[in-house]
Design brief:
Elements (H helix, E strand, L loop, with lengths): L5 E2 L4 H20 L2 H17 L4 E2 L3 H52 L1
Antiparallel strand pairs: 1-2
Helix pairs in contact: 1-2, 1-3, 2-3
Length: about 110
């Protein structure tokens, strides 16, 4: 039968050692970005450490994947929100520039 003893906070180092490489590979395959995968893996373990919960040893990879998936979704949502914001700012300024340009052209046309 599987070992269902909950891990203690001092076991986080063992969980990190035993599962970091797996989690990093799992994230690399999903993000196609080694640096982002490393950041998300680190954030996953930090999230696990600060949660102050006991974890069932058999479910560690499931838990790590769930936390990492949530962090990955949050990351891509932030990226989409940032891109939408930057696009709206860009189009606002383009409209302003075109507006100023048209005013300048009309001013020159009326002056001549």
């Amino acid at each position: 039968m599987a070992d269902l003893a909950p891990s203690r906070p001092h076991d986080i180092a063992g969980i990190y050692t035993g599962h970091h490489r797996w989690l990093l590979g799992w994230l690399r395959r999903r993000t196609d970005n080694a640096e982002l995968a490393a950041d998300l893996a680190q954030d996953t373990f930090v999230r696990m450490m600060v949660s102050r919960r006991d974890f069932i040893v058999d479910e560690v990879r499931t838990l790590l994947a769930t936390i990492a998936r949530g962090l990955m979704i949050d990351h891509f949502r932030r990226c989409a929100l940032e891109a939408a914001f930057l696009a709206s700012v860009f189009f606002f300024f383009v409209d302003q520039i075109i507006g100023f340009g048209m005013q300048w052209i009309l001013k020159i046309a009326n002056a001549g």
